[in-house]
Amino acid sequence: MNNNALPRGIKRILFSRDEISNRIKELAHQIDEDFKDAKEPIILVGVLKGSFIFLSDLSRELTIPHIIDFIAVSSYGKKKTTKSSGSVRMIMDTREDQQNRDVLIVEDILDSGYTLEYINKMFIARGTHSVKNVVLLTKEIKHEADVKLDYLGFSSPDVWAVGYGLDYRERFRTLPYIAELDIDLIHKEEN
Ligand code: IMP
Ligand code: MG
């Protein structure tokens, strides 16, 4: 897509629809392979809201038995919408019993890493058989929290990314690609 045709507030496309769908097929293939001997269906836990599109596409590419669950957490204060507060708060817990199960956390983006670290520790404490994560995007920065990525879609520059589930104050979530937000323009319009 020509950059002139992009919606207002969008600076440039980082990952196109085709790049995303090809990468998801590769990730699903790898996950299928790694969990082929699992005794029970693995539990995909999507971190709401940002991961819902990624999770729905990934789950439909998987051929291994799996079930879907969700968790919602919040780590960003209402005012500073592009800075992590470092403190993570649970908003909605999962529904499935995770005891002795293989859990795969499905997260949209890794920034400070605090969200993933928090969820990861919580699931380990629940007596799971294993806890792994698949993250669509990671920012090319030093993550403050101590997290190891098991499956990664893409590395992105340290910008605010929107689309394909990712939002800026609930906007731009349903763009079919991942794009860089024009943060200067958006801030100007907000003031
Ligand atoms: P972390 O705890 O700092 O790693 O932040 C993770 C959460 O913040 C993600 O799950 C997203 O919901 C949100 N987030 C961080 N960076 C971005 C971004 O560039 N675009 C949209 N959401 C983001
Ligand atoms: Mg998220």
Describe it.
With 191 residues, this protein is α/β, with parallel strands linked by helices. Helices cover 25% and strands 30% of the residues. The chain contains four helices and nine strands. The protein has helices spanning 17-34, 52-61, 114-125, 183-190; strands spanning 10-15, 42-48, 66-74, 89-92, 102-110, 130-139, 151-156, 161-162, 178-181. The strands form two sheets. It has a six-stranded mixed β-sheet, sandwiched between helices. The longest helix is centred in the N-terminal third of the chain and has 18 residues, at 17-34. The model has no long low-confidence stretch (mean pLDDT 93). Inosinic acid is lined by residues 47, 50, 75-76, 84, 107-115, 160-162, 166. Magnesium ion is lined by residues 47, 50, 107-108.
Features:
191 residues, alpha/beta, 3-stranded antiparallel β-sheet, 9 strands, 25% helix
What order do the helices and strands come in, and which of them pair?
Elements: E1 10-15, H1 17-34, E2 42-48, H2 52-61, E3 66-74, E4 89-92, E5 102-110, H3 114-125, E6 130-139, E7 151-156, E8 161-162, E9 178-181, H4 183-190
Helix pairs in contact: 1-2
Bound molecules: inosinic acid and magnesium ion.
Residues 47, 50, 107-108 line the site of magnesium ion.
Brief digest:
The chain is α/β, with parallel strands linked by helices and 191 residues long. 25% of the residues lie in helices and 30% in strands.
